[in-house]
Amino acid sequence: MSLNSGVSINDECVTSYKEFSLSRGKTKYMIFKLSDDKSEIVIDESGGEKDYEVFRNKLCDAKDSKGRPAPRYAVYDVEYELGGGEGKRNKIIFISWVPEESDRMLRMIYASTREGLKTALGPAASIHADEKGDIEWNTVLYEASGGKAGK
Amino acid sequence: MNPSIPPSTAEYGGDEVSAIVLDPGFSTVRAGFAGEDTPKSLIPSYYGKYTYEGEEKIIFGDDIYVTPRPGLSIHNPMGRDGIVEDWDMAEKVWEYSFTSRLTGSKPGNPLQNGLNDALPDGELPTEMEGIEAEEKPLADSPLLMTESGWNPSKAREKTIEIAMENWGSPAFYLGRNGVLAAFASGKASALVIDVGASNISVTPVHDGMILKRGVQHSPLGGDYISSQIRALFKANSPQPITITPHYLISSKTSVDAGQPPQAVYKTFAPEKAPHESYRALLEERTLSEFKECVVQVWPGPNRLTATGPNGIPNEEIARSSPGRPFEFPDGYNQVFGVERYRVVESLFDAKAHIPDSESPFPAPTPAQTLPELIKSALNGVDVDIRPHLLANVVVTGASSLLYGFTDRLNQELLQNFPSPRVRISAPGNTTERRFGSWVGASILASLGSFHQMWISKKEYEEHGPSIVDKRCK
Question: Where is the ADF-H domain (chain A) (predicted)?
Fold first, then answer.
C-alpha cells in the first residue's frame, strides 16, 4: 500500500456512484467531500443539470467551515460526439479540485486520499485542478474522450 | 507555550498520543510533534568530537558552533548522496533532535522504578530490566520518518530497526520526501524538484507513488553552490577574499568597500586550535548568509552567457542591474555585481562552472544540471503522464529559496517543453518551502485515520525489518 491518509470511503459513495454510472445521463455529476471529523469521504451533492458551467461553478465555489475555498472531489458524466457519424459516447471523469488558497491540512488530506477514492469508484479518466481554468469544458472533454474530442 | 508540551491532537489505538515526525537531511535534522505547523527542533546534522582529559567527548546541536575547543573536529554521519554512512552516529544525532527539544529523557515510572521503595536494610534493588524498558526515548511515541527516493532497502531496514529496537517506538512509518512534498501542495501527481544541501533531485510522483525509474539526483545542491562562491572569492579582484569566521576575530573597524580589512585577530596555539573542519563549518555559515543576501539566479530567458533577442549579451544586462553589498565578519565589504549570478549559473549550464583546483566538487557534467535531470526524469516515465507532471511541478528544499530560482526554472521548462500547461507550484511561505516534507508528514501523522498505516511493534516483531519494504512503498 502506498503512503496515504487512511481516510475511509463511505459505502454510500460507491453505491451511489454505481447508480450514477448506470443512470445514462439522468444524474450528470456527483461531488464528494471529506466529512467534518476528517475520518471519511462522503457525498456532498449530486445533480442533473445539463449545463457543465453550473457544475463547474458549484465545484469551484465550495467553501470550508471558515468560508475559505475548499477542496472537493467530483465525477462528471461527459458526453461527446465521435464524429464521422459514429455517434455519441459517455465517459465518466474523476476530478480532484484542490485550490491553492485552501487550508494546508485539507490540501494534504485531499491529495493523500485521492487515490483511495479513485480506485474505489473506478472512473474511466481523471484530472487534477487547482485553478478554475484547469477544468474548462474543452480540457475535460479532451481528457474524458482520450483525445478524441475537445481542445 | 512550553516547547516540551506536546499538542493533544493525535490518536493512536484510541489513546491520545503525539506522534513524532523526523525528517533527517544532509545539512539539518527536522523533528517535531505531528499536527504542528513547523518542526520545533531544527538541529545541524553535523556533530563535534574532541578529547578532554583523555576522554573522547561528542557534542550535538547548536553546541557545535559555540566554542572553538582544542582539537574539536566536525563530522557528518550522512554521505554526500544523502544516504547514511555512519549508522551509530546517525542514530545519536537523530536521537538528540527529539530528546533535546521534544521528549526529554525518559525517567522510569516513579512507582515502579524502585527508587522510592522502602528497602529492607542493606538490600539493593535487583530488578533492573523493567527500568531499562521504560527508558527508551520513544516508548510512547509513534514515529513517522522521511527518506529520499533513492534510499536503498538496507538503509530502510536499518532505520526501522533503530526506531523499534533502540528507541522503543510502538509504531513506525517511513515516507518518501517527494510524495510528502507533493501531497503538501495538494497534489497526488507531481514532478517534485527538491534543492537541498547535498543534492538536487527530481522525483516523478504519480497517484501518490514514486516512479522509481524517473528519479534523478545530482550533487549540485547548496554545498556545491558554496564551493562555487569560494572559487569566486579566490579569483576576486582587486584581491582574493578570505572568509575569517567570527571566532577568529576579537575586534574590527569599518573600512570602505574594497579596502583591506582592519581587524584584530585571535590566534590559537596549534595544540589549542580546533580542527580545520570546525573552521570550515563556521565559514559555511557566512556562505549561507551570502547566499541569502547576495546570490541571485539569472532569471532567463536563456543562459547567462547567451545573447538576448536585441543583440545585448545577458551578462551586460545583469551587469547593469545594481550590485548587492556584503560585509564579511572581518569588516571587509564589497559590492557584488554580475558575479553574484555566476556562482549559481552552473546549476543550469555546466559550462558556467567556475573552476577551482582545490574544490572537493569536480566540474559538473551537462547531465547533472537541473534542466537535464528534468529531461531524464520525464524520459523515464510513461509518455501519457508527462503532461500531468509538467502541469504540476512542485519546488521544495531550502536552496530553492535562492533569489530568482523559480523564475529561471519556469523559463527552462518553457523552453524545453513548449506546452500551454507547464506550471510551477512553489509555496511563497519560506517555512513550507524549507520544511515541505516535514509539514506533509506532520499532517498525515496527526490524522486519526492514519493509524492503519503504521507498522506496529507487534508486526515488526513478527515479520522483521523487511516489513518496511512491503508496507512503505
Answer: 4-145
| Residue B362 cell numbers, joined | 569536480
End-to-end CA distance of chain B: 37
- Largest Cα separation within chain B, whole Å, is 96
**Minimal-distance CA residue of chain B relative to A104:** B184
Paired residues of B22 in beta bridges: B31, B145
Q: Decide if B383 touches A, using CB distance below 8 A.
A: no
Are A3 and B207 within 8 A, CB to CB?
no
Instruction: Give me the residue label for grid cell 475559505.
Output: A68
Has the ipTM of the complex gone over 0.90?
yes
Residues of chain B positioned with their CB less than 8 A from the CB of A107? 183-186
Domain map (residue ranges) of chain A: 8-144
CATH number at residue B293: 3.90.640.10
Instruction: Decide if B265 is inside a domain.
Output: yes
Average pLDDT over residues B344-355: 96
Distance CA A110, CA A73 (A): 8
Q: Does B473 touch chain A (CB under 8 A)?
A: yes
A83: left (phi over 0), alpha (psi -120 to 50) or beta: left
> Domain A8-144 carries which CATH code?
3.40.20.10
- B93-96's contacts with Cβ under 8 Å and 24+ in sequence apart are B93/B24, B93/B29, B93/B43, B93/B45, B93/B47, B93/B60, B94/B22, B94/B24, B94/B29, B94/B31, B94/B162, B95/B137, B95/B167, B96/B43, B96/B60, B96/B61
